[in-house]
Specification:
The protein is α+β, with helices and mostly antiparallel strands. It has seven helices and eleven strands. The chain has an eight-stranded antiparallel sheet with strand order 4-9-11-10-6-7-5-8. A three-stranded antiparallel sheet has the order 1-3-2. 25% of the residues are buried.
């Protein structure tokens, strides 16, 4: 039983109503160490809280309503500076992704599902410098790709001669190629390759960069014109074309970046989508 000194303590149900949280949430926050009861009855296990703890409880509810994850909530309550910066960055990334999805949806509404011309091309093998970057699910592909390009171009600049995006399949110019798995899981292994000229001596790339050979073969190819965030529309069209002909995508989907985004408006960016072909048996 609670003594007279503890008469200001509130049972968990009453405190839950006061703090606009559920009893289940309060128990969970206790287990995590975010909001421990002022007193726990040793015989019954009942939890009791002081009214002064309502401010902390309401603060947790406010932060959760702003999509702040529980580990960050703990850092905020502990007064750690910069605790919300990563949360803000994640929300900004999600907002950018949603805007891209909205733009793609508006394009489909205006033009219908994409049906770009698909042609079959023979592509030779290419020696390339490759950087790999893991993405936390499909929504992280854009950020991972940008990070891989930045690392690759920085390494290229530091090593000597540089080449920018340009040229098409079979061309001799140095170009950037994004490599993405056809099946997207929880963790996506994104790779960006810088195709090297035959005489390029980049034999010992810096740490984090590997020299590999991109296999040649027969590819289905379509050209995407527009923002990188809408490339999935053209990829869908190429995959549908392959499925109709009982052709299975072999190896990663290739995005050959023809335009230089530094000088080309997003709506005029040209990207070749290439999928290696293998007959379905």
């Amino acid at each position: 039983m609670l003594g007279d000194v503890d008469e200001d303590l509130l049972p968990i149900g009453q405190f839950a109503r006061l703090s606009r949280l559920s009893v289940k949430q309060l128990r969970h926050y206790d287990e995590l160490g975010l909001l421990e009861p002022a007193y726990v009855d040793g015989d019954t296990g009942y939890r009791y809280y002081r009214p002064s703890q309502a401010r902390t409880a309401l603060s947790i509810g406010l932060l959760r309503s702003l999509d702040v994850p529980l580990p960050a909530v703990g850092e905020v309550l502990a007064g750690r500076p910069g605790a919300l910066e990563s949360v803000r960055d994640a929300l900004e990334s999600e907002l950018a992704r949603r805007r891209q999805a909205l733009a793609a949806l508006e394009r489909v509404m205006a033009e219908g599902l994409p049906e770009p011309p698909v042609r079959v091309v023979e592509e030779p093998a290419h020696r390339a410098a490759v950087v790999r970057e893991p993405a936390d699910g499909p929504e992280g592909i854009g950020a991972a790709t940008s990070a891989a390009v930045a690392r690759l171009m920085a390494a290229r600049h530091a090593s000597g001669p540089s080449g920018g995006p340009g040229g098409g399949p079979g061309g001799g110019q140095v170009r950037l190629i994004g490599l993405f798995p056809a099946d997207l899981g929880d963790v996506v292994d994104v790779a960006v390759a810088l195709v090297l000229d035959p005489g390029d001596p980049w034999e010992e790339p810096p740490a984090g960069v590997r020299t590999e050979v991109l296999p040649g073969g027969t590819f289905a190819m379509a050209t995407h014109v527009g923002p990188y965030g809408q490339i999935a529309l053209t990829a869908h069209a190429v995959l549908a074309w392959c499925a109709e002909r009982r052709l299975r995508a072999r190896g990663p989907i290739r995005e050959v970046y023809v335009s230089d985004p530094a000088v080309t408006p997003p709506e005029r960016l040209v990207t070749h989508l290439m999928i290696a072909l293998q007959e379905e048996r």
